[in-house]
Amino acid sequence: MTRILVTGASGLLGLNLAQEMKTKHEIIGADRGKLIHAPFQIVKSDLSDPRNVDSVLDAAQPAWLINCAALANLEDCERDPDMARRLNVDLPAQLAESCKARDISFVHISTDAVFDGDKNRAYAEDDAPNPLSVYAQTKLEGETATLSKNPQALVARVNFYGWSLNGRRSLAEFFVNNLSAGKNVSGFTDVMFCPMLVNDTARTLVKMLEKKLSGLYHLVGTQTMSKYQFGVEIARKFGFDENLVAPKSVHASDLTARRSLNLSLSTHKLSTDLGESLPNFSTGLNEFYTQFQQGYPQKIRSYQQG
């Protein structure tokens, strides 16, 4: 059983990773105070304050650290680029350096959004990024800073969906929440991505650590689809009216941050180095639906304060 410190433990990936691994490994979650009833150990700390990083590491003494902390909302990053830089660049750089000094295996979570989406094929790890938003720019700088400070670190570019603490963090929850209430929603037909169930993301990250992988990897779903198609797939699986999902162009939206149109990433490098295929979309969607039937969303939400 390995001791794993998960930063950003109340976020979508951090919480599901901790939940997924709490019986297989010793999980310690770093959180600012949102988690009160979590079934794993919590270290309460605000890691946006650089003075807290070393004290958290010294208290937890993990063998592995998976950094899920980030300012991940694209619009929030546009409004507060200083905080985006602190959480998406400075924090991973500091964690990477501190982990190297303590011989802690370090994983930093990045994003598919580092690419501009202009290519008509899946992006590989050696394709040149061209970020379009503050979020994407700071996440790319976080990758560079991480590997500069700690060349043995692991950086994973991800895109995932799942059940979150507040029930509103993932695109899948957006569709479920609205479609279950009979509300009309829009799905972008011109934004392509490779969604992966967050539990599959968590399980694969641990396999990557077990294999002692390092460097940059794409960890996304194996199927490319539009966000509109994703909404339709959710509707069909849950038995909602798929006609409530209306096709829409992202150019017709009122979003501030620019979005890349093609976020299709190749996972060939990762599947080759792991020696196995990554989970497919239908398997992940089936698990997502089963979690819904079994009350997993309510279980996750019960961990928060109040």
What would your notes on this structure say?
It is a single chain. This protein has 306 residues and is α/β, with parallel strands linked by helices. The protein has a single domain, classed as 3-Layer(aba) Sandwich (Rossmann fold), CATH 3.40.50.720. Helix content is 40%, strand content 17%. The chain has eleven helices and 13 strands. It has helices at 12-21, 53-60, 74-79, 81-102, 134-149, 171-180, 198-210, 227-238, 268-274, 281-293, 296-301; strands at residues 3-7, 26-31, 41-44, 64-67, 105-111, 154-158, 160-161, 185-188, 192-193, 196-197, 215-219, 225-226, 245-248. The strands form four sheets. The chain has a seven-stranded parallel β-sheet with strand order 3-2-1-4-5-6-11, sandwiched between helices. Strands 7-10 form a two-stranded parallel sheet. A two-stranded parallel sheet has the order 8-13. Helix 1 (12-21) crosses helix 7 and helix 6 packs across helix 8. The model has no long low-confidence stretch (mean pLDDT 95).
List the helices and strands and how they pair.
Elements: E1 3-7, H1 12-21, E2 26-31, E3 41-44, H2 53-60, E4 64-67, H3 74-79, H4 81-102, E5 105-111, H5 134-149, E6 154-158, E7 160-161, H6 171-180, E8 185-188, E9 192-193, E10 196-197, H7 198-210, E11 215-219, E12 225-226, H8 227-238, E13 245-248, H9 268-274, H10 281-293, H11 296-301
Parallel strand pairs: 1-2, 1-4, 2-3, 4-5, 5-6, 6-11, 7-10, 8-13
Antiparallel strand pairs: 9-12
